[in-house]
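G., the chain you wanted modeled:
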Amino acid sequence: MTEIEVVVNGQRHREAVEDRLLLTDFLRQRLGLTGTHVGCEHGVCGCCTVRLDGVAVRGCLLLAVQADGCEVQTVEGLAGSGPLTALQEAFRRHFALQCGFCTPGILMAAEDLLSRGTPTRDEIVDLLSGHLCRCTGYAPIVDAIEEAAAGALPPADEPRPEGT
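Predicted structure as C-alpha cells:
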C-alpha cells in the first residue's frame, strides 16, 4: 500500500492505495466518481479520458500512484453544480450524445483541445479518431465541439432542470 494525495475536481484526497490500482478504479470505486467510464482497458476507446494536471490522459493506462501530487479533473468537475459549460451546452444542442457511454471521455478530451486554442474542423476530427462512439456517427460531436470552439453559442432554449 502506498499513500497518495491527489486533488480531484478541486477537492484534496489522501488515500492509501494498492500499487496496482488503476486511476479509473480509484476514481470510480474509492471516490464514487462514476462518470469516468471503463471500456476497453487498453487505452483505445477513450471512455476513460480525464485531465491530469490539465492534460488529457487515459485513466485506464495510469496507476493511481502515478497521480500522486497531481490535479485530476473528471467529467463531474466540468460544470460542478453550476450551469452547463459552453461545450456541454453545445453537446446538448446538437444531440451529440446518445447512450452517453463515450461522452465523458470525449468531453474531457475536447476540453483539453479547446484549452489550447481554437481548433480547426480537421483537428476536431483527428481528436475524435482516438474515441469510439457507436451511436452518433460523430457528425453531431464534431459540430458541437466546433460550435463551442467558435464561442457562438445561441442562448439555451429551455431552462436546465434543478439538480441536473
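The chain has two domains: 2-77, 79-150.

Shout if anything looks off.
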